Amino acid sequence: MNDRWKNRRRMAWIALIAGVVYPFFPIDPQLAATMATSFYLFVAGIVSVYTGAVTVDDKWQRKEDE
After folding, report:
1. Residue 28 in 3-state DSSP?
2. SS3 of residue 59 by DSSP
3. pLDDT tens column, 14-60
């Protein structure tokens, strides 16, 4: 399972780190404030979809193992 989810996990971690680092590096404060809502929705979407997909995949793997 590690190999299957390696790139997805990396994408989720990069999105999460970008969401934390984003407020500290604004190029233009007005532009950063305008983009913040859509950026954080995008990051939250990536992280939540990854978490949900891992949960569903784990559930399916457990059913197959039984």
Report:
1. coil
2. helix
3. 888 888 887 787 678 787 778 888 888 988 888 888 888 888 888 88
Domain extent at residue 53: 2-65
CA-based torsion, 6, 9, 14, 17: positive or negative = negative
Neighbours of 40 (CB within 10 A): 13
> In the chain, how long is the greatest CA-to-CA distance?
55
Give the burial class of 12: count Cβ atoms within 10 A of its Cβ; 0-12 exposed, 13-18 middle, 19 or more buried. Answer: buried
Give CA–CA dist 25/9, Å, rounded. Answer: 24
The count of domains in the chain is 1
The pTM of the full predicted model, rounded to 2 decimals, is 0.64
> Which residue do the tokens 């559930």 mark?
59
